[in-house]
Design a protein that fits this description.
Number of helices: 7
Number of strands: 9
CATH topology of the largest domain: Aconitase, domain 3
CATH superfamily of the largest domain: Aconitase, domain 3
Helix content: 25-40%
Distance between the termini: 25 Å
Number of domains: 2
Low-confidence stretches: none
Radius of gyration: 18 Å
Mean pLDDT: 94
Shape: globular
Strand order of the largest sheet: 4-3-2-5-6
CATH architecture of the largest domain: 2-Layer Sandwich
């Protein structure tokens, strides 16, 4: 387990070391927070993945300056897992480049980081200050979440897609029905669903 413990219980606070920590065009702002911590070098540059994908190509001088700052930070910190503009979208890049594996813990400065659950990883979004702290210490505390298990059985009728399924589930759960909870999808429909569909869920 990532916490170094034999077992954990729901609600317990554990200190963990993530396998991957991802940021994107927000990296320049995170780098500023990192420098405020007072350390010179990131602890584990090999765990950091930075794709530029949100504001590409740079539409303004401000965005271009932001990208320049990120490239300079990447060089200064010797971060090899940097994907410059025109590489793709972060949530496609990480799995396609082999950064996402079953059983890994992936944290990212993006609310869609949960996408990697499609590959059997535990992944969630975190704030910029948390990312900066992980760069400095290689640790973060997390509360062990409750789990909601959703079984989807039967046959999916023609014209119904994974997006329809998740929208229905969200409608049932409500906007905050799974707040700080892990959601585990299971059942025949999930087992037969392709990886693209699982990523949509």
């Amino acid at each position: 387990l990532k916490s170094g413990k034999e077992s954990v219980v729901t609600g317990e606070i554990v200190t963990v070391s993530p396998d991957i920590v991802m940021s994107h065009d927000n990296t320049a702002a995170i780098a500023k927070k990192f420098k405020q911590i007072g350390v010179d070098k990131v602890k584990h540059p090999e765990k950091i993945v930075i794709p530029l994908d949100h504001c590409v190509p740079a539409a303004t001088e401000k965005y271009a300056a932001n990208h320049k700052e990120i490239r300079e930070f990447v060089q200064e910190q010797k971060i090899e897992n940097f994907y410059d503009i025109n590489t793709g979208v972060c949530h496609q890049i990480l799995p396609e480049k082999g950064h996402v594996l079953p059983g890994t813990l992936i944290l990212g400065a993006d609310s869609h980081t949960t996408t990697y659950g499609a590959f059997g990883a535990f992944s969630t979004g975190i704030g910029r200050s948390e990312v900066a702290s992980i760069w400095a210490t290689d640790e973060i505390w997390l509360r062990v979440p409750e789990t909601i298990k959703i079984n989807i059985e039967g046959e999916i009728p023609p014209g119904i897609y994974p997006k329809d399924i998740i929208l229905h589930i969200i409608g049932d759960l409500g906007a905050d029905g799974a707040l700080y909870k892990a959601v585990e999808f299971n059942g025949k429909v999930i087992r037969e669903m392709d990886i693209g569909g699982r990523m949509t869920l």
